Amino acid sequence: MGKRWFMLRLVSFALIRRKSRVAIAFIAIVLGVAIVSGLADVYYDIGQKMTRELRTYGANLVLTPASPENQPYLALHEISGIAARVPPRQLVGYSPYLYGIVETTSHQIVLAGTDFSQISRVSPYWKIAGDAPDKRGQSALVGEALAKKLGITAGDRLELTAEGGQTAAVVVAGILSSGGKEDNLVFVDLDLAARLLNRPDTANVAYFSIATDPAQLESLVRSLKTEFPTIEASLIRQVSQAEGRVLVKIQSLVLLAVAIILLLTLLCLVITMVNITLERRREIGLRKALGGQDQDVMLEFVIEGAALGFAGGILGWVLGLLVAQGIGQSVFHAPIAVRLPILPLAIVLATGLAALAAFIPAKIAARVQPAIVLRGE
Amino acid sequence: MVKEREKHVLLELKEVRKYYENVHALKEMSLSVEQGEWVSIMGPSGSGKTTLLNIIGGMDKPTEGRVILDGVDLSSLTQKQLTEVRRDKIGLIFQQFHLIPHLTAVENIMVAQYYHSLPDKPEAMAALARVGLADRAHHLPSQLSGGEQQRVCIARALINYPKLILADEPTGNLDEANEQIVVELIQELHHEGHTIIMVTHDQDVGKLADRQVHLEHGAIRSVLTNSYS
Amino acid sequence: MGKENYALKVRGVVTAGGDEDKQVFVPLAWLQEAVGRQGKVSRLEVSALTMPKNDLARKAEELGPDALSRQEFETWYCSPFVDSVAYQIEEVIPGAWARPIRQVAESEGAILSKVQLLMALLALAATVSSVLGISSLMGAAALERSREVGLLKALGAYDSSVIWLFLAEACLIGVIGGAAGLIAGFGLAKFVGQNVFGTAISIKALTVPAGFAIAIGVTMLGSLSAARTVSRLQPARILVGSYTNG
Predict the structure, then answer these.
(1) C169 or C245, which is more confident?
(2) By CA distance, what is B108's nearest residue in C?
(3) Do residues A334 and A305 make contact, with C-beta atoms less than 8 angstroms apart?
(4) In sequence order, which residues have a C-beta less than 8 Å from that of residue A86 and are 6 or more positions away?
(5) CA–CA distance, A329 with A318 (Å, rounded to integer)
(6) Which of these, A138, A214, A280, C164, has the minimum number of CB atoms within 10 Å of its CB?
């Protein structure tokens, strides 16, 4: 039987037959790697996740005509062209708005035509009392302040007359409250507004909600300016800057927490490995007494530690996926992206640390005279 | 059994002293052991028995003096060379048996072969058969009685054909029946011509040796030579 | 009131990406004078520190504050929810119409609760790591003292009294370590506050007893397995120091 072969058998027996002690170290490694690699997944995905969460702020990019004096309207096909320029995964939604003055029986009001299906995506913060409007019915949303002024409630009918004499009758589906300028407007479907105002396929402004970090957004704005010279694309600073700041703070907070947990966990892993190696001081003394050279004896312990770390690293990484998905589902209600490069990192880290954590006490124990085995203590 | 012994000195201690910090564990000790001789070292605890055994076995170095084993001066060797001496020339029998708990009896013997040269299972099995444990070869130490563990320890001590067998209280942890078995084994080894140095506090076991060296306070108090053979 | 001309000097150009881009900003008092509306404003924006909405706040939002029971209303009224702040502004400024700017209020609430949940989970992960770490440290410390335990048992100590001894020690270590940890934790909170948020983090009085409770609990939990292992050792085995069974 070959020497190396026998050594591997010695190592495997030490791992297999010392179940309870090895299990403790193995559990420490697996849990440690699971927590650390799971949190690493979360950390690398947190920017993406929070960017999406921050879209509850609504639109962060607005399109207006570049020279309102000459051409006061945007063409709808240009807006959809720009929407096609944004990567689909990043585009949360976009809505064009067409504004105009119309008259009801008693008052002049500002009418806004928009795509109702985009409201929940671009303006998720709107509160609608009553029903959500649908496109087919001639339904409208009335801003809360205006509704109060005119005494309108959900379910009322509104007769609208435009300057050119076009008329339309709409049913008030719900009362809209945003706390902003929308509270003074009446919203109808874009096509209906276009017909009333006689402005087919146009919009005054279009709002985009794009889930990406501020730097990418800036570069998108720059490239849009060269590609679409007739359109002025600008960031909504109130939103994008606040987002940038919040994002950086959250990321640094998470990084700090992950770093502390990483240190704690690695410390625990090392302590456990040192413990189970130190328990075998006498065995190391015996091996030396039987004529084992220091490096042979230590090599066995290092291989044992490395094997334990390797297996623990893989299993820990798998468990880490569960940790990451658990956090993703409970916090963001979305899965966390799995980053494969963390696997080799976890394996190398666990293997290296476990081997090192076995090497140091084995080295100390090997330095002790083998006479330890003769002292009857 | 009468044997024609050639007067070959296997081990010689010359004015060996050992201090641990300010404790004199051994005070100027000189002793020589011939090939094939069985020497028992006796004395109360703290008399320096274990220290002496450690120094002979190359597991500890004397502070002063020389230890010559099979023509080699141990006091001039490096740790690595001492390890080689232990590996090639010495077989150890321990009071606590010191079997590796997660290895079976035969594997424990093969560990000694592995450090010496190459693990050889048939040979290890034969060694176990010799101490009457062929059927217990695949048991873990925890499944063996104290006497059986000691017999595995003896088989392991013999496996590399050592020049010198060092036994530290080999019967210290055994009941009478097992003590008898182990004592008979050691006697057998002696008759085969093995050189044995045995530390014991048991008068009855000590008396069986060719020579009894009595230690007290780290020095030799008396030497008794048996002339039965 | 006839038309009057004023000459104003432009001191800067504002870019906000919103309606502000189409407006001219002048000092309030000057405009009040110019349009003859002294002491009047048409709109007031308030920035208030509020707390994320909970079930009560959502109920008040859905059904209106009048639908709350007396006790619910009191709780809602006294909590800094954005809606209750608006309600109180309407109370103190008669005729005013106060509504939360939902774009800010809604998203703040959503983000805040996510971040809080995330931090809570991270704190949980840190606690698990600490329990593991302390467990292995206490295990090492306990094994080092196996001879002492052997002596205690040889002198007639029960397994349970050995366990209690270790747990009592763990408790003491937890108190001392908890005190040191709390001081270090306050330092860390201050550091994080200054480096991440640029302001001091207020320290809740509750963290002191909670910190001690966690420290003691974690230390005792961590040493329980070690204490059990050590207490099961046989006294004779420890005194002889048998290798094979160790």
Answers:
(1) C169
(2) C244
(3) no
(4) A208, A210, A220
(5) 17
(6) C164
Which DSSP symbol is given to A195? H
Per-residue pLDDT at B228 exceeds 70? no
Residues of chain A with pLDDT under 70: 1, 135-137, 372-377
Cut 0.80: pTM above it: no
Q: Does B80 touch chain A (CB under 8 A)?
A: yes
8 A C-beta contact, residue B127 and residue B194: no
Q: Which helix (H) or strand (E) holds B90?
A: strand B90-93
Question: What domains does chain A contain, in order, with CATH numbers?
Answer: 2-52+245-374 (no CATH), 60-235 (2.40.40.20)
The Cα A139–Cα A126 span in angstroms is 17
- Determine the residue type at C198: G
Q: Check which CATH number belongs to the domain holding B160 and give it.
A: 3.40.50.300
C-alpha distance from A98 to closest chain C C-alpha (Å): 16
Interface of B with A in 175-214 (CB under 8 A): none
Asked if B157 contacts B165 with a C-beta cutoff of 8 angstroms, the reply is yes
Q: Does C33 touch chain A (CB under 8 A)?
A: no
**Domain span at residue C209?**
123-245
**Nearest Cα to B198, choosing from B226, B158, B164, B169?**
B169
- Chain B contact present for C246, CB below 8 A: yes
Asked whether residue C206 is assigned to any structural domain, the reply reads: yes
How many contacts (CB atoms, under 8 Å) link B and C? 20
The answer to whether C244 contacts chain B (CB < 8 Å) is yes
16-35 in chain A: CB under 8 A from chain B: 17-18
Examine the pLDDT at C236 and tell me if it is beyond 70: no
Question: What does the pLDDT look like over C135-166, one tens digit per residue?
Answer: 777 777 776 777 777 777 777 777 788 888 88
Contact C122 A145 (CB under 8 A): no
Q: Which of A73, A142, A153, A71 is nearest to A110 (CA)?
A: A142
Give me the pLDDT at residue C234, please. 63
**pLDDT of the residue at C241:** 40
The answer to whether residue B4 is domain-embedded is no
Q: Give yes or no for a contact between C128 and A31, defined as CB atoms under 8 angstroms apart.
A: yes
Residue C199 lies in a domain: yes
Measure the CA–CA gap between A211 and A335, rounded to whole angstroms: 16
Contact between chains at A369 and B60 (C-beta distance less than 8 A): yes
Q: Mind telling me how many Å the CA of A372 is from chain C's nearest CA?
A: 11
Q: Which whole number is the average pLDDT over C167-196?
A: 88
Domains contained in chain C, number: 2
Is the Cβ of C122 closer than 8 Å to some Cβ of chain A? yes
Whether residue C107 lies inside any domain: the answer is no
DSSP string, B151-213: HHHHHHHHTT--SEEEEESTTTT--HHHHHHHHHHHHHHHHTT-EEEEE---HHHHTTSSEEE
DSSP B67: E
Tokens of C28: 């309030």
Rg (chain A; Cα; Å): 33
* Separation in Å, CA of A120 to nearest CA in chain C: 12
User: Are C130 and C237 in a shared domain?
Assistant: yes
Q: Tell which residue, B141, B139, B142, B137, has the closest CA to residue B124.
A: B137
- Tell me which chain C residues have a C-beta less than 8 angstroms from the C-beta of A327: 118, 121
Contact A10/B103, CB-based, under 8 Å? Answer: yes
Residues of C in contact with A256 (CB under 8 A): 192, 196
Sheet of B195-199, strand order: B90-93, B164-168, B195-199, B38-42, B211-216, B219-225
How close does chain B come to A44, measured CA to CA in Å?
Answer: 43
What residues have CB less than 8 Å from A1, skipping those under 6 apart? B118, B119, B120, B121
Q: Which amino acid is at A307?
A: A
Report the gap between the CA of C242 and the closest CA in chain B (Å).
6
The alpha-carbon gap from C230 to the nearest alpha carbon of chain B, in Å, equals: 19
CB contact under 8 A, B83 and A17: no
Which of A110, A123, A125, A282 should we substitute to test contact with C (largest number of C Cβ atoms within 10 Å)?
A: A125
